[in-house]
TrEMBL record:
A matching Pfam family: HTH_18
InterPro entries (alphabetical): Class_I_gatase-like (IPR029062), DJ-1/PfpI (IPR002818), Homeodomain-like_sf (IPR009057), HTH_AraC (IPR018060), HTH_AraC-typ_CS (IPR018062), INH-QAR (IPR052158)
SMART domains named in the record: HTH_ARAC
Keyword annotations of the record: DNA-binding, Transcription, Transcription regulation
Start and end residues of each HTH araC/xylS-type domain: 246-344
Keyword set includes Transcription regulation: yes
Native species: Promicromonospora kroppenstedtii
Name of the protein this chain belongs to: GlxA family transcriptional regulator
Residues in coiled coil: none
Length: 349
């Protein structure tokens, strides 16, 4: 008696006006080409929209004819919520600025069947959070929106440094392309490494990316230096130089290669170490040591990206002294070694 293949896992991608075509394509591509040993499709991927079948405009000049409405969510095994970027009055996703979902979207989310797996791409996490589906759970979103996310949803355990989070039946990914990492992770979890690696090879992407979102977040030291100098000038003009640590921060940024101590910084600010430390944390939210380490890491990133200096010289120029120390600090902050970071971000000469 012939055996029928098991039913395919149904993935519903819930898009809204202003969706990003790339994000819509990620689950269709990754899940859509996953095959078992007999080359049978493992997933069925469908697109739906809260407003019902019809044309949906993306954030560009692309319009998509969507054949399904929110009723599909009642039969989906996995629901993927991508971001929407241009449907709000200020050009952003309305879900990003409002802790409540608009009624049509809320009604659609309410139709997701119990037990369905939930996934978000980029700021799609705001939709899940607004629906109360991320309370008490780990989650991530695009690093540019992490502060806003924390303000709106303090009950969510946000980690802005990772590429994705997996809390069993609820998974979230960081900005845009990290949706690829998340979908590959889900294929690997569902069907094993061999299937995921086959999908990755056919898509011409790495089956797993080292590090997290932190390696893509930048505030160049040059910009930081300009900000600190402006703050220092403003404090001096107001006659309050002795009450701010801005001048000491600007001074330190010009000397990152030197063995700066807390006493050096406090002395430059004409403060006691205790007063300087307290005021520094009030102004920056960090201890002097944390701030100095972060600036040295940013300077090291710039040197790794823009020069061919050996790692040992990079370490000396940014104040870490040795390649071993640089490697430890960069790996702890970015999740990748200096050499791996340089291979990813080194600019062509």
């Amino acid at each position: 008696m012939a055996q029928h293949p098991p039913p395919r896992h149904r993935v519903a991608v819930l898009i809204r006006p202003g969706f990003i075509p790339f994000e819509l394509g990620i689950p269709h591509r990754i899940f859509g080409i996953a095959r078992d040993a007999e080359h049978r499709p493992l997933y069925e991927v469908v697109t739906c929209t809260p407003g019902g079948p019809g044309l949906v405009r993306s954030d560009s000049d692309v319009l998509v004819q969507v054949e399904h409405g929110p009723e599909v969510l009642e039969t989906a095994d996995t629901v993927v919520v991508p971001a929407s970027h241009t449907s709000g009055p200020d050009g952003t996703d309305p879900a990003v600025g409002d802790p409540r979902l608009e009624p049509e979207l809320a009604a659609a989310v309410a139709r997701i069947r119990p037990g369905a797996r939930l996934m978000s791409i980029c700021t799609g996490a705001f939709v899940l959070a607004a629906a109360g589906l991320l309370d008490g759970r780990p989650a991530t979103t695009h690093w540019l929106e992490s502060d806003r996310f924390r303000r709106l949803y303090p009950r969510v355990v946000l980690d802005p440094d990772v590429l994705y989070t997996d809390d069993g039946d609820v998974l979230t990914s960081a900005g845009v392309a990290s949706g690829v990492d998340l979908c590959l992770h889900v294929v690997r979890r569902d069907h094993g490494a061999a299937v995921a690696q086959d999908v990755a090879r056919r898509t011409v992407v790495p089956p797993h990316r080292d590090g997290g979102q932190a390696q893509y977040i930048r505030r160049p030291v040059g910009i930081e230096r300009a900000v600190e100098r402006a703050a220092s000038s403003g404090a001096a003009a107001a006659g309050s130089r002795g009450t701010s640590t801005a001048a000491a921060r600007a001074w330190a940024l010009d000397r990152l290669d030197e063995p700066l101590t807390l006493s050096d910084l406090a002395r430059h600010a004409s403060m006691s170490v205790r007063t300087f430390t307290r005021r520094f944390r009030d102004e920056t939210g960090e201890s002097p040591a944390q701030w100095l380490t972060r600036q040295r890491i940013e300077h090291a990133r710039t040197l790794l990206e823009t020069t061919a200096l050996p790692v040992e010289q990079v370490a000396r120029r940014c104040g870490f002294g040795t390649a071993q120390s640089l490697r430890a600090h960069v790996t702890a902050a970015l999740g990748v070694t200096p050499s791996a970071y340089r291979r990813t971000f080194r600019r062509a000469a």
